[in-house]
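User:
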Amino acid sequence: MAPEPAAGPPLVLTERTEPTRRAPGPEPIYRKVWFWGAVGVVVATVALILIWNLSSNESGPPGTTFGNMHAF
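Assistant: Predicted structure:
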């Protein structure tokens, strides 16, 4: 009979470790208070400009001489 192969090193059972967690990254910009404040200011400004332009009833050239100048 052939000799049995030599056994390898004994298996060592270790405890299961929890996977390492990443350090939290920087907070997204859309979660910042100042970001939503800036968005609100932009939206309010656009709304005021649109309301101002739509409420004006001027249909002719402006009341200055720049509106009546001809290029040629």
